[in-house]
Every structure is written in structure tokens, then in C-alpha cells.
Amino acid sequence: MDKSCNVVPPRPSGPDLMLDLLVARGKALPASALLRAGALLGLGETTVRVSLTRLVAQGKIARRGRGSYQALARGPSLSRTVDGWRLRESQRVAWQGRWLAVHDAAVPRSDKTRWRRHQLALGLRGFAPLEQGLLVRPDNLGGGLAGQRAELGALGLSDSALLFQAAGFDEATLARARALWDVRALQAAHRHWLDMVQASHARLSHVPLPSAVRESLLLGRQAIAHLLRDPLLPEELMPSQPRWQLHQALRSYQDLALGLWLQWLGES
């Protein structure tokens, strides 16, 4: 990576990079532009073309005309979850003290791929283990039980898991449930990424354009991945201000990153 770029996060995979760029653009892009973008991140022509073919087969992007590609508005649920990070703050609703619970003791662990998808679905929805085989989270997300059943199922929750609403915990269990999330660590992580994003935002106008494009893409991906892991707890369990500040900074940062990307694309 260029020495003028102070951020050295992991390089995204070919499919991840192509999907990021197409989603950010919102319109069709020629393969030539995607190949140049791949080269900027160290991906060869073969890798980029194979990635595009795979994304088309997965229903995440589509060919538009000759040699152009566009992200599809309705792809798999995981893609929609990642792409829709800007809307996360609107998902919280007032908490009435009830909980959502998942009992997954009967879920087979032998199929490693399905087990990982099951765990990823629970992680993206902020569930934490209360007992062995029992995970809970506050019932404070839009759509309630029915909405989360649909979302979790689309994300990969096992059919062998039971999802239900829970209430009436005894005081000791309630205290344990409320303390399942390390709120201090979450807030510290939000502040860390906020500092990183703000520092990069201030620096990007002073580095060469290719370095600015590379840095904004890589840092933005990591910060968004962190934000997607926030459990969106109710205010009663975790103040929302640190997450909201990061969310707002990331929105501005991604707008800047898109402008840099389009500028670089026009000059390349």
C-alpha cells in the first residue's frame, strides 16, 4: 500500500469489492472500470472476472448490456443487511421489557457451513447466550417476533431452532440477561472507529487521489462491519449516542468516499 495511506486493513475479496463498488454507485458500471478498481486494490483481471461471474450466479448483480454490471436491489438477505447499514438506527423501537429468545440445543453441529450461518444470523441480530442452548436479546427491533423470525430465517437461522418471546424472568435471571453485553467495550470500540473515520476524513484531501480512494474504501468497509455487529440495545441497557455519532460520521465519510471513487474513475 502507498506510504501516504495510513490505514492498512485486510484487502477485501474479489466478490466483496465488486459488490461494494456496484452498490455504492447504484448504477451500472463497465467491466473496464471494475478491472481498474480491482487493480487499485491488488486484484488481477482473472480474479475480478471470476468474481463478477460468481456474483451474477448468486443473484447479487446482473449484466447490463455488453460488459456492464449493476447491483440488484433485492439480493440475498445477508447482502441487504450489509448494504442497508444506513437504515440501522431506524430499526430500534421503544422497549417494553420483553425479550426475544432462541433455543438451539437441537440444531445439529455436524454441518459446519449451516452452523456458521446459524451463528452469523444470531450475531447480526445481537443475540447473546443466557444459558447453554438459549440465547436472548431485548425485543426492541421493528417488526417484533414475526419480523425477526422472517429476518433470522432469511439470514440462515436453523429450522431446528425455536424463536419465541420471553418475559417474567426472576430477578437474578433478569440481572444476568441485562448484563450479557459488554457495554463499556462496545462504547469504547465505537469511539475508536469514530476517531479513525474522522481522522481519515480530514486527511483524504491531502493525499494522492488513488491513495485516498483506497484508504476510504478499506477503512469504510471495516467501520461498517463493526457497526453491523452492534446489537442495537435499548437505551435502558446502553446509551445510543456513541453509536449514533459513529453512524453519522460514517454516512458523511461514505459520501466523500463515493465522490473520490467517481473522481478517480473519471480520471483513470
Summarize the structure.
This protein has 268 residues and is an alpha+beta fold. The chain has helices at residues 14-25, 31-40, 45-57, 77-83, 112-124, 144-155, 171-178, 183-203, 209-228, 241-267, and strands at 29-30, 61-63, 68-71, 99-103, 128-131, 134-138, 162-166.
Structural class: alpha+beta
**Cα distance spanning the termini:** 18 Å
Fraction of residues in β-strands: 5-15%
Poorly predicted sequence stretches spanning 5 or more consecutive residues: 1-8
Read across the widest sheet, the strand sequence of neighbours is 5-6-4-7
Average pLDDT level:
88
Number of helices: 10
- Please give the share of residues in helix: 40-55%
CA radius of gyration: 20 Å
Count the strands? 7
What's the overall geometry?
globular
What can be said about the biggest beta sheet? 4 strands, antiparallel
Structure characterization notes:
It is a single chain. The protein is α+β, with helices and mostly antiparallel strands. The chain is built from ten helices and seven strands. It has helices at residues 14-25, 31-40, 45-57, 77-83, 112-124, 144-155, 171-178, 183-203, 209-228, 241-267; strands at 29-30, 61-63, 68-71, 99-103, 128-131, 134-138, 162-166. The strands form two sheets. Strands 5-6-4-7 form a four-stranded antiparallel β-sheet, with helices on one face. Strands 1-3-2 form a three-stranded antiparallel β-sheet. The longest helix has 27 residues, at 241-267.
